[in-house]
Amino acid sequence: MDGIAPATTAELDHLEAVIDTYLQRRLVEDPSVAAVERGDGDQRRWYVRITGDAKDVYSVWLTLGQRTLHYETYFMPAPEENAEAVYRQLLVRNTKLYGLAFAIGQEDAVFLSGQLGNESVDDVSLDRVLGTVVATVEQCFVPAIRLGFASRFASL
Fold first, then answer.
1. Domain ranges of the chain
2. Beta bridge partners of 48
3. CA 19 to CA 22: how far, in whole Å?
4. Other beta carbons less than 10 A from residue 18's beta carbon
5. pLDDT at res. 42
6. What is the pLDDT of the chain when averaged over all its residues?
7. Could you write out the DSSP letters of every residue in 127-143?
8. What is the DSSP letter of 120?
9. Which residues lie across from 33 on neighbouring strands?
10. Bigger pLDDT: 152 or 113?
11. CA distances from 153 to 1, 28, 38, 72, 148 (A)
12. What is the phi/psi pair of residue 132, to 5°?
């Protein structure tokens, strides 16, 4: 990112405390937040396990870097059929998302990911990030799965 200096250790420590406090509060106050865990090693990383309606359980990974907070969730495996239609549907949906986008990852699996500048990390932004991820999964998961695995749903 041009012109933005990397965060100092003290700034990262402060942001880490902001994120820790926010996530612990969500764990207590929000029944859809089933668990919050910290990543191993030197990375400043969190795993937020969410329970949903359309998709029973999924994790949102938050990774604090020198300039941005990256967030990501595994959305679905690679479609077994109608792959072009699934990817098209999700790419069209990208135009309506704020701070989040569908992407193809390893083994053609679908992920949702985004990033937030460290200068914007606060409770309001973290709420928006998690809210956007949850809303997008809830709205898009069933249609994408039904299209990408249509023959599995044909007998239902």
1. 9-148
2. 36, 60
3. 5
4. 16
5. 81
6. 94
7. HHHHHHHHHHHHHHHHH
8. G
9. 50
10. 113
11. 45, 37, 37, 27, 10
12. -65, -40
pLDDT at 74: 97
What's the distance, CA 83 to chain centroid? 22
Yes or no: domain 9-148 corresponds to CATH 3.30.1460.10: yes
Question: What would the pLDDT profile of 47-105 be if each residue is shown by its tens digit?
Answer: 999 999 999 999 999 999 999 999 999 999 999 999 999 999 999 999 999 999 999 99
Residue 87: partners with Cβ closer than 8 Å, 6 or more residues away:
79, 104, 110
DSSP letter string, 74-116: EEEPPPSS-HHHHHHHHHHHHTT-SS-EEEE-GGG-EEEEEEE
How many Å apart are CA 129 and CA 134, to the nearest integer? 9
- Main-chain phi, psi angles of 32, to 5 degrees: -80, -15
- What DSSP state is assigned to residue 28? H
CA-nearest of 44, 51, 5 to 26 is: 51
Angle at 36 between CA 130 and CA 142, to 5 degrees: 50
User: Could you identify the residue written with the tokens 């795993």?
Assistant: 47
Q: Which of 86, 115, 110, 85 is nearest to 98 (CA)?
A: 115
Q: What is the pTM of this model?
A: 0.91
| pLDDT for residue 3 is more than 80 | no
